[in-house]
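#struct-pred
JK: can someone run the complex with beta-D-glucopyranose? inputs below
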Amino acid sequence: MPDRFDLPAGFRWGVATAAYQIEGAVDEDGRGPSIWDTFTARPGAVRDGHTGAVACDHYHRWPEDIALMRGLGLDGYRFSIAWPRVQPTGAGPVNPAGLAFYDRLVDALLGVGITPLPTLFHWDLPQALEDAGGWLNRGTAYRFAEYAALVADRLGDRVPAWITLNEPFVHTVYGYAMGIHAPGRALMLDALPVAHHQLLAHGLAASLLHERGLDVLISNNLTPVEPASPSPADLAAADAYDTLHNRLFTDPLLLGRYPDLSAFGTGPDLHGAVRPGDLDLITATPLTGLGVNYYNPTRIAAPTAPGLPFDLLDIPDVPHTAFGWPVVPDGLRNLLTGLRDRYGTALPPVTITENGCSTTEDVDDTFRIDYLSAHLDALATAVAEGVDVRGYYTWSLIDNFEWAEGLFGQRFGLVHVDFATQRRTPKASYAWYRDLIAVHRARCAKEGSVTSP
Ligand code: BGC
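RT: done, structure tokens with the ligand placed:
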């Protein structure tokens, strides 16, 4: 069986974070309010009333965080740019002080040999745009493209590849359908236009990035779906869930059409949101790569109550993370070979842009080491089976603000953060990841190939 050390030469090693989860400094240097500032102020919305107002204070402590990354020997760092820092109301001219933060960050990363991989939207929409309808408003897609161009004009001379959106599935479902993330709207299936407007935003921004000679990716949260039984009802439910979670966000990008959404009471126009020509805009710029965020598979059964066409079940008899998510490393292999089988030559090279787990451990995080090593072995198996995977960015560099779970609930970092003092302490997984990268690189060099800087 192939293992993680068999990953190909040139394979890129990284870590991932997101702006609202680490930066803090929500009122500094002209940053405007985001939907997460509003949502976290809502009583009961976030565990223990936590907010990202300080988070990991990365806005001030970024040199220390870059030193930690340097210590890992990374090839790349995936972070997100806070739209409300760059355009405080989501429209109009740049806020120079906000953009300057990312300019300094990019230069410092390059200075230590780490390639920046920015995500333009990781859920922190400027509140002013939400007040105008947020992603239910088609205009937000056009505002996003303008913002993307402003950022690329400033950083594109040094940043070769860009991720447009993070996990439009999670933002649509948690943020607009269920209301458990910002902006906290509980529209259920009436949220479907949010999916289309994000994909339209991707397409419009991708064209502008491409015009500037830049590579374009998008990060989708994907899950292999397993039916609870081979009964026709369970199979139909699993198919419906697969359509909603996986195909809704990948078919338009790779095949130029929406999947059959009849199980969700809509045709391919997503409640009238899709206009003629939109799918051409979404696919106008082929993806340089597909970002895949993988955490766990999903087991699905036929619904037991009216409403959605599926029930979500737990996967028994496997370990579970602190979040209660089942640990199934082979799910990653399954997901990747399934993507290859489904999309064939339409599938661009894949980069794993998130994978990791929350644990209750302190710094002796053997659960995380087991999780990461098993997932990387599964990844190497998928590569050996012919899937083109170019890199792996683990979630996350440091413990951070885990959305509705707040600051202390779910720790995903290779580095422990004491949120009272902001003291960073590398965990055992930090040393493990550092050594893995070094050994892999040495092995590739010995075999005569040289990995990318
Ligand atoms: C998100 C991250 C989040 C992680 C763990 C992903 O869905 O992109 O922001 O922290 O999962 O929940």
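RT: quick notes.
The longest strand covers residues 115-121.
The chain has one domain: 4-446.
JK: thanks, will look after standup
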